[in-house]
């Protein structure tokens, strides 16, 4: 199996506090991983370090495939833009997306008819779905998702779980954080509490 991510003895400090140390993880194509741990254990910090967004205070070795999409817990959307415009101006993974692809992605997340609606007029859950529509546009092999299940309903959670599984079945891999219980088949779990400094 193709290896998409490898962590060797990874530690991270924030300021003068060591969050965790000695993390070992290998993620191969087709695998779905959930990072769990108590608040402040470093789940988001670890994802950001893997994505190259936390270069200070990182110890150990992180080897990551170049084809990677990071999506933080904040949606990264502009409230004055429409749903379609937000996705058009956020070319997920650096790929130019045709409007038909954007409209298909919005349909997949249950937002048919909202394509030209200004984001600020949508509920928090609908805004979250706009951000998640990027997953239907991304060509990246490795997805790093911070709290992707936040603010979405039961149907939205089921839809997202299916997309994560589909990505893995197509040769990709996913590493995500979530405080919500997830009962996806084949899910692997890394508990950062076990690496607390």
Main beta-sheet strand count, sense and barrel state: 5 strands, parallel
Oligomer: single chain
In the sheet with the most strands, the strands line up as 5-6-7-3-8
Specify the structural class: alpha/beta
**What's the Cα radius of gyration?**
17 Å
Count the domains: 2
- Which percent range describes the beta-strand content? 25-35%
The percent of residues in helical segments reads: 10-25%
CATH class of the largest domain: Alpha Beta
CATH topology value of the largest domain: Rossmann fold
State the low-pLDDT regions, or none: none
What series of H and E elements makes up the topology? EEEHEEHHHEHEE
Shape, principal axes of CA atoms: globular
Number of helices: 5
Mean pLDDT: 91
Please give a quick description of this structure.
The protein has 197 residues and is of the alpha/beta class. It has helices at residues 43-50, 83-88, 99-108, 124-132, 154-169; strands spanning 3-14, 17-28, 32-36, 58-64, 68-71, 142-146, 173-177, 188-191. The chain is globular, with a radius of gyration of 17 Å.
Give a verbal description of the structure.
By secondary structure, this protein is α/β, with parallel strands linked by helices. The chain has 2 domains: 3-67 and 141-151 and 170-195, P-loop containing nucleotide triphosphate hydrolases (Rossmann fold); 75-140. Helices cover 25% and strands 27% of the residues. It has 5 helices and 8 strands. A 5-stranded parallel sheet has the order 5-6-7-3-8, with helices on both faces. A 3-stranded antiparallel sheet has the order 2-1-4, with helices on one face. A hairpin with a 2-residue loop joins strand 1 (3-14) and strand 2 (17-28). The chain is globular. The chain starts with a strand and ends in a 6-residue tail after the last strand. The model has no long low-confidence stretch (mean pLDDT 91).
